[in-house]
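Hi V.,

Quick status before I head out on leave. The structure for the redesign project is tokenized and pasted below; the design run finished overnight.
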């Protein structure tokens, strides 16, 4: 007599999982590069009279998206009006470059290997320019992507999004010209 269930698990990983994830998660091209889909937008709103003057109009309390980069793509330098939290989900480690208003460059790696200094979450403060790219490769299983989530509060609105102009950003941060040139469109 069999009293329990037997579950068989098979590894269905494809050599290139990114196209399947893009389809399954219903991701679309993002203006900064990569693919995204909003998965949460709070119904509760913050009135424009309560928000800082940097916002034009009311905002959702919070929003979140899936964001996927494939090897060779990058998230171009941009900034938004709110703090943004990046969450690592799967794939290769992701390097986030942050240019602070004080002129400093911060380099952080989202990924699964805490012993190597990687982290699962990273907060990017409002008004900081930032860009991202995949670091390294995984020859063991042909992984060629990174899947992360991004949470923004007050919630994201495209009117708060500014994609960097290469020449203008280079004039503000001349010491990082090569990086800015590589990670802008």
């Amino acid at each position: 007599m069999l009293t329990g269930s037997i579950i068989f698990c098979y590894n269905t990983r494809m050599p290139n999982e990114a196209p399947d994830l893009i389809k399954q998660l219903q991701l679309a091209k993002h203006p900064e590069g990569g693919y995204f889909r909003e998965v949460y937008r709070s119904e509760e709103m913050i009135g424009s009279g309560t928000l800082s003057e940097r916002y034009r109009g009311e905002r959702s309390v919070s929003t979140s998206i899936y964001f996927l980069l494939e090897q060779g793509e990058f998230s171009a330098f941009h900034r938004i009006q709110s703090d943004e939290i990046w969450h690592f989900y799967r794939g290769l480690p992701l390097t986030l470059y942050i240019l602070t208003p004080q002129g400093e460059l911060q380099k952080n790696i989202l990924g699964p290997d805490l012993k190597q200094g990687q982290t699962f979450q990273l907060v990017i403060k409002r008004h900081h320019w930032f860009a991202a790219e995949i670091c390294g490769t995984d020859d063991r299983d042909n992984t060629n992507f990174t899947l992360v989530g991004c949470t923004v509060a007050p919630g994201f609105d495209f009117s708060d999004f500014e994609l960097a102009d290469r020449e203008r950003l280079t004039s503000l941060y001349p010491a990082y010209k090569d990086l800015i040139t590589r990670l802008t469109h």
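Above is the designed sequence. Residues 18-24 form the longest helix (7 residues).

G. will cover questions while I'm gone.

Best,
W.
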